[in-house]
UniProtKB/TrEMBL annotation:
GO biological process: DNA repair
Protein known as: Endonuclease V
UniProt-listed Pfam families: Endonuclease_5
Protein encoded by which gene: nfi
Site annotation Interaction with target DNA: residues: Y131
EC number: 3.1.21.7
Organism: Halorubrum xinjiangense
Keyword Hydrolase set for record: yes
Length: 290
DNA sequence: GCGACAG
DNA sequence: ATCTTGTCGC
């Protein structure tokens, strides 16, 4: 595979200090502006896929463009085929019976175009490094790159499960993967690693957002710098409260554009569709492996 | 020493 | 992340 920055690819034998130094290099190589960013309207997902009867089949653009099906009956359009490709990435873990620690990662990549799935890919990789807060990319980065390698489609945007710029050295998983491949990427986390939301996130309506600003834990940014957003992607009218998402730039997008993209990719559920589908695909691959 | 921390 | 039933509310 052609890594954009093979020089920034981590060596498995790095010490913790060396990993942190590499993250500072990766953050320096990352761009958090919209010069190459996508238009949220171009990637919007209108309707959520139903997962009740399993994952939807991948659409075959080539056949649809040739008019293989009944005339006019196809839901795919030429515009869909030309739309940017958004790839959601997520992982599941395999633990051997009797063991307490997972020994392999299942990385799933699901490509969407015009709101529907065009390709599923996955890779199962032995795990070497344990989970350490701040160093997640060294555990999950290579497995994710392995899954992306098996994708035929070239991603225009990666949606990663975890932080991007919301990170101690502004180099979370989404930034790590985005920079190594030099592809625009966003990070979507279900909890906050570091930084401080401008406003309390308690009981907010759907669509609400507030900037997350760097605090003292972020060692590479001036305190107060906007590094991402808390975003209420879903909320119930009554009672039960849904926690917000924490969205941050990975690479080649601003904090503002990152949330706009994620908002456009949400279709009624808490998680954006690419992430939701990648999660389900990873679970399916895992289940078929046990 | 304690806190605090994506998946 | 993973181990898991029911249960509450849409």
């Amino acid at each position: 595979m052609d890594l954009a920055r093979p020089d920034l690819r981590p060596d498995p034998s790095l010490s913790r200090d060396e990993m942190e130094a590499l993250q500072r290099e990766i953050a320096a190589a990352a761009t958090f502006d919209d010069e190459h960013a996508l238009d949220p309207a171009a990637v919007a997902v209108e309707e959520a896929a139903s997962l009740a009867d399993g994952l939807p089949p991948a659409r075959d653009d080539a056949q649809e463009q040739l008019g293989t099906g009944a005339a006019g009956a196809s839901t795919g359009t030429a515009a869909d085929a030309d739309a940017p490709t958004v790839v959601g990435v997520d992982q599941a873990f395999l633990t051997d019976r009797g063991e307490d620690r997972p020994d392999a990662a299942v990385s799933a990549a699901v490509a969407l175009r015009g709101g529907s799935v065009v390709e599923y890919a996955s890779a199962t990789t032995p795990l070497s490094i344990p989970y350490i807060p701040g160093l997640l990319a060294f555990r999950e980065g290579e497995p994710i790159l392995a899954a992306l390698d098996t994708l035929d489609t070239e991603p225009d945007l990666l949606v990663c499960d975890g932080s991007g710029r919301i990170h101690f050295r502004e180099a979370g998983l989404a930034t790590h993967v985005g920079v190594l491949r030099d592809v625009p990427s966003v990070g979507v986390a279900k909890s906050l690693l570091c930084g401080e939301p401008d406003e309390s996130t308690a009981e907010r309506p759907e669509g609400w957002r507030t900037p997350v600003r760097a605090d003292d834990a972020v060692t590479t940014a001036e305190p107060g710098t906007a590094i991402g957003h808390a975003f209420q992607s879903r909320q119930y009218p009554n009672s039960r409260r849904v926690n917000p998402l924490y969205v941050s730039p990975g690479h080649r997008v601003s904090a503002e554009r990152a949330v706009d993209l994620v908002e456009a990719l949400c279709a009624g559920y808490k998680l954006p569709e690419p992430t939701r589908l990648a999660d389900a695909h990873a679970e399916r691959v895992k289940r078929n492996a046990e």
